Structure formats: C-alpha cells, structure tokens
DNA sequence: CATTTAGGTTGCGAATCACAACTTAGTCGA
DNA sequence: TCGACTAAGTTGTGATTCGCAACCTAAATG
C-alpha cells in the first residue's frame, strides 16, 4: 500500500469511503451508542444510564444516527411514552468495524484479558481476530495491499 | 448478541476494549491521519496539504498518536528540518478497523463504485469484505454472536 | 547572507460538549 | 380522578475543543 503513483494516491485519498463513514460515526459517543445497540439496548433512558452520557448529547447522537439510517426510531405501541431505537441493516454493517476496534483496544490497550469474550453462539468458541483477507481467504497485512485502478485492469485483460 | 444476563451485560459494556480504542482514535481527524500514514505519507507538510487539516490540529493529533504509540516520531538524519512519522506495529494493527470503516462507507455511503480498489498485491484481485469470522472461519453476523464468560466455560469443561 | 522550507506555536472567534434544571406527554396506583 | 412517577426529550450556561490565520525558529538552499 506504499506503491502509489501520484494520480492514484490522489484518488485513493479523496474517493474513499472513510470520510463518509466518519461523517456518520466520527463524533464522540457514536460508537459507544452503536455498541449499546448491538448489546440489545433499545431505549433512551437505558442508554443514558448505561453510558453515562449527557441527555442532550445522547438525543443529538440518536437523531444523527437515525438520520444516517444506522438506527431506526419507532414509538412503542404498548407504552406510548417509550421509543425504540433499532439497528438497521446499514447499522448492522458496522459490526466488523466495531469489533475490529474493540479487538484492537483489547489487544493493545490495558492488556486486559477481555472477559466475557465474544463467541460464536453455535459452539461458544471465541471468534477470530478481524482481519483483511484476500480474494481466496489468505489473511493480508499492510504490505500485501495495493491500490489497483479497475479501468486499467480491464485494459490489461483486453490485451 | 442480544442474549445477555444482566451481570454479563455490565461486564460486556464496561470491560470492553472499545472505550480504550476510542480514546486513541476517537477524535476528529485521527482516522484520516492514520489513513494517510497507511498510504505512505510520512511528513507534517505532506499530511497537512493532503488532508487540508489545520496545522495546530494536525500537530495536536500527531502528538497524541505518538503518545498512544500508534505513530513513531523520528527526526530525519539527512535533512534535520524534517521529521518522519511512521506506523508502529500497534498502528498497523488498526488496519482491519480502518478498512472495515472504509468498506462500510463505500458500501452504504454515496454508492460510489470505489476506484481504485484495494487489492492483494500478489494477484491484484480485490480483497474480501472485512467480516467477523468464527473460530473455524465461517463468517458470522450479529445474531450469531454471544458473550461467553470464560470462567464459566472452564467450569463447564470440568464437569 | 537573503530566501525558502519544515514543523511547529499562538491568538481568537465559532462550534461543540457537559452538567443541571425544566418540560411535555403518557402511565400507574389508590 | 388525581397525584406521583416515568420516558424522552429541550433549554440555559459555562468549559472545551475546532478551525483559521498569523507568527516563529531552526535548518537548508542559492
């Protein structure tokens, strides 16, 4: 991933999904709220007391997450005071990013052995570390990566 | 991951690597600076002009990333004005999280087809989507996950 | 020796955060 | 049916942080 010609580097940096992801999830608390949602918390008061976040900030973040369609806001029919915030498919798509971050924090953070551990519910064995994998499943590191212009690939294939 | 008994839920939320990861990477620009580092940018001015970030903010972030030992700050011997910021192993460990975020942004963001594409340099084929995998390699989704208390597992195994 | 470059620092107004108090609508128990 | 309580916010206020521009210092360059 160090082998960039100049025009490619420009593209790689500007036409990248990262800024877009950060626009939705880059603010303080957003990831903590997402984690709470993954852990099954659905209500404002639940999240507020669990996270210890200020109420106005929580209201603002929930609003933004709903706007980004990461959460879905639905008033409860049985108790009309309550509101349910539920993960959308888009929100569920953030699972790998969240777990990768969490695992990094556990690996390189305080060195806590992390208990309870995240497991496959089928066999209750711990999940693998989240990694980048090649097309054929080989795990890849930074130096195995490269930016490839797909239009060039098509041109090459045509030769 | 919704099947938490109350004490387990407490643990899962408080004894979690996520807050620790966010302490290091949760501020605005941190991930963009990390991406720049992965793309081979090493110098202050390079990053500043590439990212369009304010100089004081960049200085502050680089300082924090060095403090967190995600980047390493080394004065260049050949030109003693220059300073090199290099990824540490700890910093490289953030690759999966960054790629996962980037892929999410590409998938759910503007819908841009993302060109150039991140590829395995060995065969120049696009990498897989970053996912959570079980111990045996099966890809897992949110509902396949569960928190397991390892001390309980040991107790169970002893039976 | 004057100019340019690299990597910052400083000052200041604008935006965001955090804490507490208040509000509004709906529920519950007597 | 009425007072107490709960859920989900909103408002006000001070403390932080952000972003921009200008400035600074040491080193290289011509």
Low-confidence stretches of chain A: 2-9
What is the averaged pLDDT score of chain A? 89
Give the class of chain A from helix and strand content and strand pairing: alpha+beta
Oligomer: homodimer
Strand content of chain A: 5-15%
Biggest beta sheet summary of chain A: 2 strands, antiparallel
Largest interface: A-B, 87 and 87 residues
Rg of chain A, nearest Å: 20 Å
First-residue to last-residue Cα separation of chain A: 26 Å
Which sequence of strands runs across the widest sheet of chain A? 1-2
Number of helices of chain A: 8
Characterization of the model:
The structure is a homodimer of 159-residue chains. With 159 residues, chain A is α+β, with helices and mostly antiparallel strands. Helices cover 47% and strands 14% of the residues of chain A. The first copy, chain A, contains 8 helices and 6 strands; from the N terminus they run αααααββααββββα. Chain A has helices spanning 6-14, 17-25, 30-38, 44-51, 55-67, 89-92, 95-108, 150-158; strands spanning 71-75, 83-87, 117-120, 132-133, 139-140, 145-148. In chain A, the strands form 2 sheets. Chain A has a two-stranded antiparallel ribbon with strand order 1-2. Chain A has a two-stranded antiparallel sheet with strand order 4-5. In chain A, a hairpin with a 7-residue loop joins strand 1 (71-75) and strand 2 (83-87). At the A-B interface, helix 1, helix 2, helix 3, helix 7 and strand 3 of A face helix 1, helix 2, helix 3, helix 7 and strand 3 of B. Strand 3 of chain A pairs antiparallel with strand 6 of chain B. Chain A binds a DNA duplex (30 and 30 nucleotides) through residues 27-28, 43-45, 48, 53-60, 79-83.
